[in-house]
């Protein structure tokens, strides 16, 4: 399903929806606690309106608009990272580093940081 085409009219199973919903509620509760005391979003937009409606339909315990917005941001970024892992992108990055044609400087051959700063740039106390 990740790299396939989703056919029109296809739906997820009830079990899958319940599992995803439970995970999202945990995330929203955590984000709600972390964002407690923060000012509400200055200008709610269409996305926030839709998220608040979604939350009400799901019997959410009243997540703030900020927590809902952060939830979508976190959820989508997490899916992006998982997609990259499933596509073995991270593994290809690791192997490309070891096959680099340009040698990487060894840490021991680098000058100490104190020697990298020009004497004229030092500050006297």
Number of strand segments: 0
Give the overall average pLDDT. Answer: 75
Structural class based on helices, strands and sheet pairing = mainly alpha
Estimated share of beta-strand residues:
under 5%
Main sheet: strands, sense, barrel: none
SS element count, helices: 5
Q: Which percent bin holds the helix content?
A: 55-70%
Q: How large, in whole angstroms, is the Cα Rg? A: 24 Å
Order of helices and strands: HHHHH
Low-confidence stretches: 115-125
Task: Provide structural commentary.
- The protein is mainly alpha-helical and 125 residues long.
- The protein has a domain of 85 residues.
- Helices cover 55% and strands 0% of the residues.
- The longest helix has 22 residues.
Question: Summed up, what is this model?
Answer:
This protein has 125 residues and is mainly α. It contains five helices and no strands.
List the helices and strands and how they pair.
Blueprint: H1 14-34, H2 46-57, H3 65-86, H4 89-98, H5 113-116
Keywords:
single chain, 125 residues, mainly alpha, 5 helices, 0% strand, disordered C terminus
